[in-house]
Amino acid sequence: MKTRVGYLGQVGTFSEIAVLSYFHDGEAERIGMKSFREMLEALENKELDYAVLPVENTTTGIISRTYDLLKSYEVFAVGEAVIQIAEDLIVLPGTKIEEIRTVYSHPEALSQCSGFFEAHPSIRQVPYNDTAKSAELVKNSNDRSIAALGSWRAREAYGLESLLQGVQNLKNNMTRFLIVSNKRIVQPEADKVSLMMVLRHKPGTLYNILGILAKNGVNVLKLESRPIQEHPFEYFFYIDFEGNTETRLTQEILKEMGQRCIEMRVLGCYKAVHF
Q1: Four-point Cα dihedral 149, 177, 174, 18, nearest 10
Q2: With 90 as the cut, is the pLDDT of residue 167 above it?
Q3: Nearest CA among 8, 61, 58 for reference residue 226
């Protein structure tokens, strides 16, 4: 039986590309889903073995809706994938740039390609469901006046053509995806811990938490705060740091940190992508 892996959207999305990148042995059954919540519920109910969730983009920062959901489900991050986000201008074969009047894509993709629209002010941009759906729209329309912004995978899936490649503003635009399981799996080579914590609302609490890591020579990779919806203007924190939860050092660090938190939960321990 193939490993069942959920991702957001349909064939051709960057989420599907992340699945192809991480599960490269061809044994994964790729299952497109409508929302992050649907994916996590299916994972928790064991209808999926893994889910692939975007959590951070080098241009727009963290994808907060993913993080806000992660803390509400009994799931565990076991890996990560980093995908280059190259937005191609996808058209019907043979289309010329002067024929294009409208470009469809996901709102985030449109914003990441603002320079293209500044250079082509006569082209109208229209937000659409996602990048792959936009490519499908172009395919079904048989209309050379419309185009989509999307991936090479979407272009291939719908038999289209990339009139221009990589029109996003930043050529080094990447998205980080977490590979999430309903089982707690920690590989021996894991070197990154993701943690959620709610701190006591007292002066110096965050300083002291970070001090625990500093005195043990542990590198902090990321720190983000998110509002606690039930408590206005109070926050919980997400922190990534170097370590492996199976080692004594990391276990001692987590124990000491937990004593200073109202709530703390390890969201995952996995092998980081290094550049």
Answers
A1: -60
A2: yes
A3: 61
Pairing of strands 220-227, 192-199: unpaired
Structural domains in the chain, CATH included, are: 3-85+173-181 (3.40.190.10), 88-164 (3.40.190.10), 192-270 (3.30.70.260)
Q: What separation, in Å, do the N-terminal and C-terminal C-alpha atoms of the chain show? A: 34
**At 22, which helix (H) or strand (E)?**
helix 14-22
Q: What is the rounded distance in angstroms from the CA atom of residue 101 to the CA atom of residue 86? A: 22
Task: With CA atoms as reference, report the closest residue to 89 among 115, 53, 69.
Answer: 115
Report helix, strand or coil for 201. coil
pLDDT, one tens digit per residue, over 25-47 is 777 899 999 999 999 999 999 99
Structure tokens at 36: 């992050």
pLDDT of 65 reads 85
Q: Locate tokens 């990339």: which residue? A: 162
What is the spatial distance between Cα 50 and Cα 41, in angstroms, rounded to a whole number? 11
Q: Look at residue 92 and tell me whether its pLDDT is greater than 80.
A: yes
3-state helix, strand, coil in the chain (%, to 5): 30, 35, 35
**For the segment 123-157, what is each residue's pLDDT rounded down to a tens digit?**
999 999 889 999 999 999 999 999 999 999 999 99
CA-CA-CA-CA torsion sign (52, 58, 64, 65): negative
Residue 53: band (very low, low, confident or very high) from pLDDT cuts 50, 70, 90: very high
The identity of residue 60, as a single letter, is: T
Specify the pLDDT at position 114: 93
